[in-house]
Write a structure and sequence with these properties.
By secondary structure, the protein is mainly α. It is 72% helix and 0% strand. The termini are far apart.
Amino acid sequence: MTLKDYVENRLWPILVETVHELVMYPHHKAYARDSILPEKPEIRPEELAVRLKISLGEALVILCELTNERKTMS
């Protein structure tokens, strides 16, 4: 599945809401943005999950949000 497939799923908003409630989510997102994506901008969600020791769901939300942020900055 692509990131787009996940985002279009009707359960996506529930996943996003759940991930946003995780205590470490802001720190994981910042670390991914500042340390991981500069060295590997095309990282897959599965690899991000393994590297940060987080769930696939959290990795999907992080990558989706960071991708959207990069698009709006361009």
